[in-house]
């Protein structure tokens, strides 16, 4: 009898432990599941959107290399239409736009620079610049931003300078390698590639100027000038 009681007690204890473990696993899954799903969905949308965007861009450029200006027009048209819908106010004719929270003149220079940068970047495809090289060259804007920041008075650590130097070396090697492949073709292709590099370089300089203006404006906002 005593052995039977011990067996029943052990059996009940094991059943309670199994039930408790199942409840713990269920609660953990209920807590971690939504967060994990949100993280995977976010990563899928980011990488899926970026990869599909680059694939579509390369397909368009390979089909018609001179369609960069059309891409810029479509991009800005889409942003303008969606922005107008979100800012629509039927009580404010004739443009039916909601009142701005900041004056337009405050961001006019940034708007012009942003438009010019996008036009130049997309127009560079017309000069025998491939999409991979285009992406690599645009990622090398850190050097121009650092130079502009240094001229503005900003100082950087040795680690930041070394990182930018290594990045710039990689960008130069990628451009040099692609230029060497272009040199095996006709001279006109090599000349067009050089023109495309100059256009991208000008766009990088304008990007650095825009970044400095944005930094200067944010600093002026955080430290406003007091008037007596």
Largest sheet: none
Gap between N and C termini? 96 Å
Level of helix content?
over 70%
Radius of gyration, whole Å: 29 Å
Record field, number of beta strands? 0
Keywords: Membrane, Sugar transport, Transmembrane, Transmembrane helix, Transport
Transmembrane segments: 35-56, 68-86, 107-125, 131-152, 159-176, 196-216
Organism: Akanthomyces muscarius (Entomopathogenic fungus)
Pfam families: UAA
What features would you describe in this structure?
The protein has 228 residues and is an all-alpha fold. It has seven helices and no strands. The chain is 78% helix and 0% strand. The longest helix has 62 residues. The chain is extended. InterPro entries: SCL35B1-4/HUT1. It is a multi-pass membrane protein. Keywords: Membrane, Sugar transport, Transmembrane, Transmembrane helix, Transport.
Indicate the topology:
Blueprint: H1 2-63, H2 68-86, H3 108-123, H4 131-138, H5 142-152, H6 158-183, H7 187-222
What brief labels describe this structure?
transmembrane helix, extended, UDP-N-acetylglucosamine transporter, UDP-xylose transmembrane transporter activity, UDP-N-acetylglucosamine transmembrane transporter activity, 228 residues
Summarize the structure.
This protein has 228 residues and is mostly helical.
């Amino acid at each position: 009898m005593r052995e039977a009681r011990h067996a029943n007690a052990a059996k009940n204890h094991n059943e309670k432990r199994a039930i408790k473990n199942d409840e713990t696993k269920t609660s953990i899954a209920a807590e971690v599941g939504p967060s994990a799903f949100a993280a995977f969905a976010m990563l899928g949308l980011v990488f899926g959107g970026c990869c599909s965007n680059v694939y579509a861009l390369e397909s368009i450029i390979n089909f018609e290399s001179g369609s960069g200006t059309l891409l810029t027009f479509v991009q800005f048209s889409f942003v303008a239409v969606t922005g107008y819908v979100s800012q629509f106010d039927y009580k404010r004719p004739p443009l039916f736009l909601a009142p701005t929270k900041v004056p337009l003149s405050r961001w006019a220079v940034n708007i012009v620079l942003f438009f010019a940068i996008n036009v130049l970047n997309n127009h560079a495809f017309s000069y025998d610049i491939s999409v991979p090289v285009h992406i690599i060259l645009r990622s090398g804007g850190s050097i121009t931003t650092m130079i502009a920041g240094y001229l503005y008075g900003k100082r950087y650590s040795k680690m930041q300078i070394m990182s930018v130097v290594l990045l710039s070396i990689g960008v130069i090697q990628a451009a040099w390698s692609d230029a060497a492949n272009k040199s095996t073709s006709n001279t006109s292709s090599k000349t067009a590639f050089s023109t495309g590099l100059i256009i991208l370089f000008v766009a990088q300089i304008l990007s650095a100027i825009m970044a400095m203006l944005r930094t200067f404006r944010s600093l002026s906002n955080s430290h406003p000038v007091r008037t007596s």
